[in-house]
Specification:
This protein is an alpha/beta fold. It is 33% helix and 21% strand. The protein contains eleven helices and 15 strands. The longest helix is centred in the last third of the chain and has 19 residues, at 342-360. The protein is globular and about 55 Å long. The structure holds nicotinamide-adenine-dinucleotide. Nicotinamide-adenine-dinucleotide binds next to helix 3.
């Protein structure tokens, strides 16, 4: 198992946070020292499928620090529809072939990759080489090697990298992280997380095609469950054992249907996840020394809901995507923390690979060698 060292993480994060390494690729207003708070960053969405159409583009109408400045699409009909709907100038509309010309476009500061998983690395790397900051959707890539390539490309080109884990910007998840940080219910002793839905439509969809998705439920919904057990404990796991279940092999010909996995943590916390393309489930539940907390649903867009042994949680709900993209823009503009650095996406992919390895070895326990101070739980 590959190990991510603390120093490598800190170096990358320092580059990401410090901003001093950014000059050539910085939005002009920032690089010249003019007031950055006057500037909204221009985002280009790459891939105009359902997530871009129904979540990201509408959210970008309400963001404070960024706006929809451009699109990259393989469908000529979408160029016209999106161009007029979102008032996007022709010069900010690209296709997959002429995408690299985006490097000369000063109105585009951030490229947001919202394509099938197999295309994340290619477009994230091309965006970085074009000098654009990158948001890459989850799962970050097809494997750890691709995650490294994206992280390196962003680092070498002095651009910032965020993963599309929108929950880190929303209040229910932030409250869970606070419980962990402040030990509101004492230490967490057991955490369980489920993330799944029933898939029954088009069996030809890319999510069920391993070449395009890299895997089934685990790659799609499982990364949410993995995220949950980490931010609900504040620790990275030290081992995992996993099992796969198949009840509809005629539909899930190429990808995993349901996976369960058990985790050990250095502090003694025990964790378990279930992820599925056959079972609708969306929750986290934590048993602690002095009570419990849970979110159900824990990772849908809105509305989330939660309760604890002390009572109901009740937060204002607004577009998670709006909050997420504004948080990333604040990271670029004002050196605010990067809530979802590339290393976090890579960490999750290391866990995904260990889960698949465990399954292939009949459930054998796999060691996970993250340094305990790695600290992505907070
Ligand atoms: P989608 O199938 O609705 O859209 C995919 C887009 O990619 C379409 O515009 C399609 O034309 C384009 N595309 C280009 N080449 C393709 C190919 N070979 N096969 C299929 N489509 C191709 O998918 P989506 O739901 O928008 O998901 C896109 C990405 O966003 C995925 O990585 C997914 O995991 C991620 N996502 C994240 C969230 C979240 O909450 N963070 C939610 C949904 C999707």
């Amino acid at each position: 198992m590959r190990k991510i060292t603390r120093r490598k993480f800190n170096t990358t994060l320092a580059k990401g946070l410090g901003g001093s390494a950014l000059t050539a690729h910085m939005p002009l207003a920032c690089a010249m020292g003019s007031k950055p708070d006057k500037k909204k960053l221009g985002i280009a969405l790459v891939g105009l499928g359902s997530y871009s159409t129904y979540q990201l583009a509408p959210a970008l109408l309400n963001t404070k620090h960024c706006y929809l400045a451009g699109i990259v699409t393989g469908s000529p009909d979408k160029e016209k529809i999106w161009g007029s709907k979102y008032n996007i100038p022709e010069g900010n509309i690209y296709n997959y072939d002429n995408f690299d010309a985006i490097k000369d476009n000063k109105e585009i500061d951030v490229v947001y990759v919202v394509l099938p998983n197999s295309m994340h690395a290619d477009f994230s790397i091309r965006a970085a080489k074009a000098g654009k900051h990158v948001i890459c959707e989850k799962p970050m890539a097809m494997n750890v090697e691709e995650c490294d390539a994206i992280i390196n490309a962003c680092s070498e080109n002095n651009v910032k990298l965020g993963i599309g884990y929108r929950l880190h910007s929303e209040p229910y998840t932030q409250e869970v992280k606070r419980f962990v940080r402040e030990k509101t219910f004492g230490n967490v002793r057991y955490i369980s997380a489920d993330a799944g839905y029933y898939s029954g439509s088009n069996p030809e969809q890319w999510r069920l095609n391993k070449k395009l998705s890299g895997g089934g439920a685990l790659m799609n919904m499982g990364v949410y469950a993995i995220q949950t057990i980490v931010y609900s404990t504040g620790e990275n796991p030290v081992s995992v054992s996993a099992q796969e279940f198949s009840t509809r092999p005629e539909y899930f010909k190429d990808t995993d249907e349901t996976i369960t996995a058990q985790f050990e943590f250095k502090s003694g916390v025990v964790g378990t996840i279930m992820t599925s393309h056959n079972i609708s489930a969306n929750r986290l539940h934590a048993k602690c020394e002095r009570g419990w907390f849970e979110l159900d649903p824990a990772s849908t867009y809105i509305p989330l809901a939660g309760r604890t042994s002390k009572g109901e949680l009740n937060f204002k709900q607004e577009s998670q995507q709006k909050l997420q993209m504004d948080d990333f823009a604040k990271h670029i503009l004002f050196d605010a923390p990067n809530l979802v650095p590339g290393e976090m996406g890579k960490r999750d992919m290391m866990i995904v690979e260990a889960i698949y390895k465990s399954i292939s070895e009949g459930g054998k326990k796999q060691a996970l060698n993250f340094e305990s101070e790695f600290g992505f739980g907070g």
